[in-house]
Structure formats: C-alpha cells, structure tokens
C-alpha cells in the first residue's frame, strides 16, 4: 500500500501557507482601504496590518518563513523596477546634475547620521547601517503625490524625482555594503574547522569570473535582448513579452546569486538593460501590478516581526528618531540642492518633500539584520526603525501639500554662488518652463493617426505617438519622432507619454473597448485635456462622451456623411462634368 502521510503533510503545509497569505492580503487590503479613506499612504497600512495580525499580537499568522520567501521575491522585483526606471538618455543629458543632488545628499545623510545614531547606543557599524537605511525616501509615495498634484514637470518635481532616482540607485550599493559592515563588526560567517584557507589567487579568480559574467550579461542585454524582445512584441497579446522579460530579470538574479553576488544586483542590472529597449514603458506597466502585490506582502511580512508593545514602550525614541531623520535630511537635501543652483524656495520645497524615511529604509534594515549587524537588540532596533518609517510616511502627504508654507523662510536666502553651474541647465529649464508649445498625444499610428500627426506637427504642436506595432515604432523613431511602444490603456505608458500634462489626446486606434478604457484613465490623469476619440458605432460614442471624451468621431456616421457629400456633388454637377469625372476614374 502507498503511504499517504508525506503527501497529506505537504498538502497541510501548503494549506497553511495559502491561509497565511490570504490573511495577509485580506488584512492589508482592509487596513489600506481605511488609510486611503483618511488620505494616508498605504505602506504604513501594510506595516500595521502585519503587526496586528502577526505572532506578537493577535497571532493569526504564526510562521512567517514562507511569507518571507515571497517577500524576498518582492525585493528582487523592486530592484528590477529601479533598473527599468533608470533611463540611459538621462545619464547622458543635463539631468545628471540633478542626480548629483541625490547622490551627494544621500552620502551626507549617511555620514552625519552615523554619529547621531551612535548617540542612541548603537555600535559604529550598526549606526552606519541605520544611517544608510534612513537616508532613503519613499519613491512610491512621493511620485504618486506629485503626479496627482501635476507637479512632476515643475522644477521642484524634477529635482525631487532625480533625488529619488539617485537614492534608489544607491540602494543597490547599500545592500551590497551590508555584508562588508558585518565583516568589519566581526559578524561574518565563521570558517569551517576543516576548511582550507582561501588563497589570493582563488579570490582573484572568483572576482574575474564575476566580472566576466556581468560583462556577458551586458553584452547580451545590448545585442541579443533587443532582438528577442522585438520578436516577442509581435505577439499581440503581450504575454510573450512579459514572460521573456520576467525570465531575464529572474535569470539575472539567479546568476549573480550563484556567483556569490547579490541577487538584487542581477535584477537591477536586468532592469537597466531592459530600460535601453523601446519596450520599457509597456513592460513597466505590465510588471507594475505584480510588483505592487508583492510589495504588499513584503511590508506586511516586515510588520509580522514588529512587536507593538516594544514600539509603544519606546515611543519617545521613535519620535526623537523621526525628528532627527527629518531635520537631518531636510538640511542635507536642501543645502545640497541650493549649493548646486536651485532657487532657495525650490530647494526648501524639495527638502521638505523628501525629509521622511521610505520603503527601501526597511529593505536595507532587513538586510542589515540578516547580516547580524544589530546583534541581540535586533528586535528593538527594527521596532524603532519601523516606527520611524511608519510615522514619517503618515506625515508625508501633509508635508508635501504644505511644503511651500513650511519652507517659506528659505525664500529670504540669497541664490547660491554656484547657481550657474549645475542644477538648472538651459535644457532642463527650457523643458520645465516652456508652456507655450501645445503637447498632443496620438494613440494609434495607422492611416488616421498619420494624417492627424502630420497636420498637427505642421501647425507647430509637439507630438508624442503611442503605438503597439514594434516595426512602426522603429521606423518612426528612426526619422526623429517621439514614439512610445505600448498599449495606451497601460497606466505606465500614459505617464511616460506625458498624458498628465498634455493639452490634447487623440485616440485613433480601431478598438472601441481600448478607446473607452483609455478615455477613462486619461480623464483621471488629466481633467483639462481635450480628448478626441474614434469609435465604430454610435453607442460607443455615447459611452466615450459619458466618461470624459470631448469629441467622438463615429465611423459609420462619418462614412454616411462622406458618401452623401460625394453623391450630392455628383448629382449637382453637369452631364459634361460627370463624363469627365468618369473618364478620369
């Protein structure tokens, strides 16, 4: 007879994981809905949901090991997303000085934050880990607020975005640096008693293998990956494109992990290579929902390890930590932006907007804890850090909304003597301040889209084309047009096309369902844009106007009008004119 005991045990184990995952997602959703109603960032909601229902409170989830494995995948996806948002063209343009604001201010925050953290009783290496983690702000929260307030194209929005991008880039190095700190603290893994000592030649050989593997990945990303994705993009369902890209990202993470490097580094590198392809916007939108789902699991898993009683017991340290983090980051970010040329009030607004701690603070702190940097006080340190992130993120929306008022005193300061140098280059200032050019987004570049694009370009409008045909994208890009590969119903594609600041959006694709979905999303992003849509039938026109379209051209009516005009012209002409017309045909 067959012994079913192992099978039943495995099934029960899988059931426990599914139950824990269900509890985590359900509670995170409920708490986040309440936070959304209160107009508070959702990340604190995930943290508090994990803390309430975790093993140290109600106890609905007792074993978080399986959930932690899912959370590790979330970190890989986060790094993958960071790489995809790093545009190589920005690194070659005047955007580099803005990135310098983030790099310098992050380094200053970590440097000055280390002795401040030591005042709370931490060792130098633990204090350095805490300072590095707290130097990160929340990209997810700040960008969402700036997009909602339509401030991303303003100067302070551009500087804030560049600073966040620099911080996200620094996360890769920070994660890789944690094992080094652990080695300095004497927390590295002890060698096996029978293990042979590692020779210098083996270390050099291992380093060369790692460098060679990374080099091969870069070559693959530059020469092979675009061709593979071009073939995958021909699949109109876009599933193949997503599967290929996810395989590249996870494969790179597995490869770097096998080489002894960080899996997060491999995921970041894969995302960066994908960012150099025309498909980055579509892929970012496709991967986004999956990343957000894993993000919810990650932050809830972080909350599972939080002991609320410890955090409440140390509430005064949490508040002092919030004040210290916000004061230090406001000074380092504000002064750096001001020195590099930003107007004083703009530097102040950026500093207030980014003064908080963010999601990557917890990622870095978790890696530091895993490397033993916090020692026996790990639970207390993590409780304090989670509390700081929790409180600062709750305050962030109000601080951004009142940033000009809070930073109003900075208007009295003089301009930096270095203002000719850096932050506001001519190109960036022209891009931010030029409002005279009318921006038009055209979705679909078939016969209708081409005619409209030519006429509007001739009238002096700035045209952005969104097209799903990779060959059309390649041809139009080669002649200098701004073309984005992607589905106009994809939210990431809408943002990348600049719909939130467009004066008009034309939906010319022959798909009524896509037109209706796009109209709804566009109107949510931009309440003032003129939306012109195309539908096959009159019923579709009524629906499109109902959800926000200003003008709808109905193909069956347009055909009827054109035919009527042609018949009238023919009937109204003379016999001689009709004969000439027939001979001409």
Characterize the structure shown.
- The protein has 585 residues and is mostly helical.
- It folds into two domains: 17-187 and 199-412, Na+/H+ antiporter like fold, CATH 1.20.1530; 435-578, Rossmann fold (3-Layer(aba) Sandwich), CATH 3.40.50.
- 69% of the residues lie in helices and 5% in strands.
- The protein contains 26 helices and six strands.
- It has helices spanning 5-37, 42-53, 65-85, 88-92, 96-118, 124-134, 139-148, 155-184, 200-233, 239-258, 263-274, 280-304, 308-313, 315-339, 344-353, 359-370, 378-401, 403-406, 426-433, 447-458, 470-478, 491-496, 512-525, 538-546, 555-572, 575-584, and strands at residues 439-443, 462-467, 482-485, 504-507, 530-535, 551-554.
- A six-stranded parallel beta sheet has the order 3-2-1-4-5-6, sandwiched between helices.
- Helix 23 links the parallel strand 4 (504-507) and strand 5.
- The termini are far apart.
- Mean pLDDT is 80; it is low at 1-13, 189-193 and 421-433.
Q: Main sheet? A: 6 strands, parallel
Number of domains: 2
The chain-level structural class is mainly alpha
Task: Please write the CATH class name of the largest domain.
Answer: Mainly Alpha
User: Considering DSSP H and I runs of 4 or more, what fraction of the residues is helical?
Assistant: 55-70%
How many strands in all? 6
Give me the CATH fold name of the largest domain: Na+/H+ antiporter like fold
CATH-scheme architecture of the largest domain: Up-down Bundle
Distance between the ends: 86 Å
Low-confidence stretches at least 5 residues in length (pLDDT < 50)? 1-13, 189-193, 421-433
């Amino acid at each position: 007879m067959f012994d079913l005991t192992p099978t039943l045990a495995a099934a029960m184990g899988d059931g426990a994981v599914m139950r824990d995952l269900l509890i985590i997602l359900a509670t995170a959703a409920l708490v986040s809905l309440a936070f959304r109603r209160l107009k508070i960032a959702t990340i604190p909601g995930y943290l508090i949901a994990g803390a309430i229902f975790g093993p140290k409170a109600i106890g609905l989830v007792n074993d978080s090991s399986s959930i932690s494995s899912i959370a590790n995948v979330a970190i890989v996806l986060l790094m993958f997303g960071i790489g995809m948002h790093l545009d190589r063209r920005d690194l070659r343009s005047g955007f580099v000085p803005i990135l310098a604001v983030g790099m310098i201010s992050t380094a200053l925050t970590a440097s000055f934050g280390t002795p401040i953290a030591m005042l709370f009783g931490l060792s130098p290496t633990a204090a350095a880990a805490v300072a590095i983690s707290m130097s990160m702000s929340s990209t997810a929260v700040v960008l969402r607020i700036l997009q909602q307030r339509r401030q991303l194209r303003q100067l302070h929005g551009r500087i804030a975005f560049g600073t966040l991008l620099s911080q996200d880039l620094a996360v890769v190095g920070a994660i890789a640096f944690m094992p080094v700190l652990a080695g300095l603290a004497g927390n590295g893994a002890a060698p096996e008693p029978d293990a042979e000592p590692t020779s210098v030649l083996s270390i050099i050989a291992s380093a060369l293998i790692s460098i060679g593997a990374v080099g091969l990945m870069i070559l693959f990303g530059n020469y092979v990956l675009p061709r593979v994705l071009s073939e995958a993009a021909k699949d109109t369902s876009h599933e193949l494109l997503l599967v290929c890209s996810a395989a590249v990202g996870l494969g790179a993470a597995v490869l770097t992990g096998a080489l002894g490097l960080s899996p997060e580094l491999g995921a970041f590198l894969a995302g960066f290579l994908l960012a150099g392809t025309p498909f980055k916007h579509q892929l970012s939108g496709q991967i986004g929902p999956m990343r957000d789902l894993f993000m919810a699991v990650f932050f809830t898993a972080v909350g599972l390890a939080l002991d609320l009683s410890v955090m409440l017991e140390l509430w005064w340290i949490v508040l002092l930590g919030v004040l210290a983090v916000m004061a230090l980051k406001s000074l380092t970010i504000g002064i750096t932006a001001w020195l590099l040329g930003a107007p004083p009030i703009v530097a102040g607004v950026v500093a207030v907007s980014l003064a908080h701690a963010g999601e990557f603070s917890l990622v870095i702190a978790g890696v530091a804890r895993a490397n033993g940097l916090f020692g026996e006080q790990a639970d207390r340190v993590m409780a304090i850090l989670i509390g700081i992130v929790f409180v600062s993120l709750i305050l962030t929306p109000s601080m951004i909304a009142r940033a000009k008022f809070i930073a109003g005193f900075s208007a009295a300061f003089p301009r930096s003597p270095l203002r000719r140098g850096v932050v506001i280059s001519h190109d960036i200032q022209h891009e931010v301040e030029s409002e005279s050019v009318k921006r038009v987004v055209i979705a679909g570049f078939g016969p209708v889209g081409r005619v409209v694009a030519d006429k509007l370009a001739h009238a002096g409008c700035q045209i952005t084309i969104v097209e799903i045909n990779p060959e059309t994208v390649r041809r139009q890009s080669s002649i200098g047009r701004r073309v984005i590969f992607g589905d106009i119903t994809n939210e990431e594609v809408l943002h990348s096309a600049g719909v939130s600041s467009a004066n008009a959006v034309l939906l010319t694709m022959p798909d009524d369902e896509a037109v209706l979905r796009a109209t709804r999303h566009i109107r949510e992003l931009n309440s003032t844009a003129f939306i012109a849509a195309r539908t096959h039938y009159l019923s579709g026109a009524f629906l499109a106007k109902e959800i926000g379209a200003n003008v709808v051209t109905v193909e069956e009516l347009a055909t009827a009008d054109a035919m009527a005009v042609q018949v009238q012209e023919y009937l109204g002409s003379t016999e001689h004119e009709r004969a000439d017309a027939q001979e001409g045909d």
